[in-house]
Amino acid sequence: MSDPLFMVKTAFYIGNYRQCVKEAQKLQLGDQSLDLECDILMYRAYLAEGKYNLVLGEVQSRSGPEFLALVLLAKIMQNPSNKDAIVSEVGNVLNEGAASLCPDIVALLCANVYLQAGDYESTLRVTNSASSLECHALAVQTLIQMNRVDIATKEMKKMQEIDEDATVSQLALAAINIAMADTKSVQTAYYVYQELADKFEPTAILLNGQAVCFLLQGKPEQAEDVLQKALDKDGGHPETLINLSIVSQFLGAKDSAKRYISQVKDSHPNHPYVTRLEEKEKIFDELSSALLSNR
After folding, report:
1. Cβ–Cβ contacts within 10 Å for residue 39, how many?
2. What's phi and psi for 202, nearest 5 deg?
């Protein structure tokens, strides 16, 4: 049986957020759970575009644990410095969501809140309580961030048993192969991104995936070419700017690297990469000051 939300989900997974919203808005499925899932995907696409106030303005008045969880996700994405207060509300939403119309959606959104807060253990605890492909995919993402590719591979195999051809399963496969980083795995990841780009559209997410493959293969020039295509599609895409800064360093273009990082800092000050970079810069400055004062 075909999935009536296939195009909405696929557009979201590959990062074509405008198309996701467009597909979602024209669907009238007449099924309460499917309509709810469709709405949540649309609002998640808006969040991915940074339209936090739009989502909060439309969702805060809607009832149900699915929308309560979405509000928490919007708030932590908009203001990560307030993560402790936001995370403290997740438990109640999860309890209410257990008996909701779409418990896996509640679990997915709450797990994303934990992941945004950097709480990997809680993220995995919630994803393990659900059975959807996307919850498995989020577990894979989390485990890769924890450098547990071995366990992530087992999680990916669960996805393949459910539907190995699903877009989200293919993206999880590519992510694991990049994390493994050996020659054969990187080539496999590249082919996955290329196949999805040929089948749907070469979005910034897919092009960045290919660029990372080129970098791991020691081909920074090819990586730069692909990233420029991604930049043409979305001039403010943070991962594209970050990867361009890395490629520029490989190519010895230090001024370009600094320029790309400045752009990310200006347009996405709460991006995890920016936060980590600023923390390291602060530590470096403190150490430099301490060394100078001891001379």
Report:
1. 19
2. -75, 85
Instruction: Give burial (CB, 10 Å; 0-12/13-18/19+) of 253.
Output: middle
pLDDT (tens, 9 = 90+) of the chain, 295 residues, equals 588 999 999 999 999 999 999 999 999 888 999 999 999 999 999 999 999 999 999 998 898 999 999 999 999 999 999 999 999 999 999 998 887 889 999 999 999 999 999 999 999 999 999 999 999 999 999 999 999 999 999 999 999 999 999 999 999 999 999 999 999 999 999 999 999 999 999 999 999 999 999 999 999 999 999 999 999 999 889 999 999 999 999 999 999 999 999 999 998 888 888 888 878 877 877 777 777 776 6
State which amino acid sits at residue 291.
Answer: L
Amino acid code (one letter) for 274: V
Nearest to 41 by CA among 70, 18, 9, 71: 9
Instruction: Give the chain's length.
Output: 295
The pair of structure tokens assigned to 282 is 């602060």
218 CB burial (10 A radius; 0-12, 13-18, 19+): exposed
For 119, the 3-state DSSP assignment is coil
Alpha helices, DSSP H only, in 234-271? 238-250, 254-267
Are the C-beta atoms of residues 178 and 198 closer than 8 Å to each other?
A: no
